[in-house]
Amino acid sequence: MLHKLPAMFNEAYAVLKGDDRLWPALAQRINVTDPDVTAAYRDLERRVNNPPYNAELIKPTQALLDAIIAIAGEGAVGVTVVDPAAFLFP
């Protein structure tokens, strides 16, 4: 089953990249109703979603975690180090 998960994500992202009709309903879920904002949201999500899931993401994920800890504190996050063993890379 775990090997099917990346394929399912890829299929979902392919649908989201190819069907503009889905985006108004998705935007409404985050209280966005303006068509121009919806289009900007759609275009941004299409650019940044579905990155290649590989070990190269650990370092930027750690940088993000460090930034969050710097703002919110370790207690708010609960972890300080990204555990590479927690990822299931294809």
Word description of this protein:
The protein is an all-alpha fold. The chain folds into 2 domains: 1-50, no CATH class; 53-90, no CATH class. 60% of the residues lie in helices and 0% in strands. It has 5 helices and no strands. The protein has helices at 4-18, 23-28, 35-48, 58-72, 74-77. The two termini are 12 Å apart. The model has no long low-confidence stretch (mean pLDDT 87).
SSE blueprint and pairings:
Blueprint: H1 4-18, H2 23-28, H3 35-48, H4 58-72, H5 74-77
- Rounded to the nearest angstrom, the radius of gyration is 17 Å
Instruction: Summarize model confidence as the mean pLDDT.
Output: 87
Biggest sheet: strands, sense, closure? none
Q: What would the principal axes of the Cα set say about the shape? A: flat
Count the helices. How many?
5
Spans where pLDDT lies below 50 across 5 or more residues: none
Strand % is: under 5%
How many domains comprise the coordinates? 2
Order of helices and strands: HHHHH
Helix content: 55-70%
Global structural class: mainly alpha
Q: What is the terminal-to-terminal distance?
A: 12 Å
How many β-strand stretches? 0
Quick structural gist:
This protein has 90 residues and is mainly alpha-helical. The protein has 2 domains: 1-50, no CATH class; 53-90, no CATH class.
Question: What attributes does this structure have?
Answer:
single chain, 90 residues, mainly alpha, 2 domains
